[in-house]
Amino acid sequence: MTTSDDGATRKFDASRAGEYAVQSRIALAGYDACHELAACLLAASLGSGGRADILVAGAGGTAQEIVTAGRLEAGWHFTAVDPSRPMLDLAAAAVEQAGLAKRTTSVLGHVHDLPADWRFDAATLVGVLHHLPGDEAKQAILAALAARLKPGAPLILAGNRHSYAGKPLFLAAWGERWRMHGSDGSEIEARLGRILQGADPPQSDEDVARLLAGAGFERPDLFFSSLFWGGWFTRRRI
């Protein structure tokens, strides 16, 4: 993330980090499938069985990008970047449990804090963009990623899009999903309130494509969708 996302970073304090693994799977129906498809797309684009350096921006929490892709490809090394210490600590624990600690470098900070001459074979940005307020902050992190990718390198981008209030049926279905998992009315209201707090998703798939183009990426392909959530595959322009 960039320096303009300090409010987003503060949202992921120790209390929120502690419930992240469970709540993220309720909020995103298909959480594991999205990460599995992302790993498969990277392997298909980079070629399986080789060595690659993967930048994982906003890696904190479950580190699911690393855990899933690391099990698929034994030759990949991951650089996990996150500005939230509690979230990065959770990610480190997940990586350790998966036996991937020796293949993962953790960096507390932002993408633009990485050395300017580092170049990666691929990158992921999952569950981050909709927490950044305004186009400027979104464009900044995408540009920082593009600057640290090799020409033609793939990027997996995933996160919420659309105005939450603009899709009331999706918002209501979100609440029903928590009810399906045992929450009562007050709990659902609180959950939705926390999601809506400070969130600023891109307004459409076209908005996502515009932001990516402005940062130096090719037009993205949508590979996953679940209510507000979308997952896209793109490449840094050569």
From TrEMBL:
Keywords recorded for this protein, A-Z: Methyltransferase, Transferase
Keyword Transmembrane: no
InterPro entries: Methyltransf_25, SAM-dependent_MTases_sf
Domain Methyltransferase: 57-152
E.C. number: 2.1.1.-
Alphabetized SUPFAM superfamilies for the sequence: S-adenosyl-L-methionine-dependent methyltransferases
GO terms for MF: methyltransferase activity
Pfam family name, one: Methyltransf_25
Keyword Methyltransferase found: yes
Enzyme class: transferase
Domain of life: Bacteria
GO BP annotation list: methylation
Gene3D superfamilies hit by this protein: Vaccinia Virus protein VP39
Protein name per the record: tRNA (Cmo5U34)-methyltransferase
Source organism per UniProt: Labrys monachus
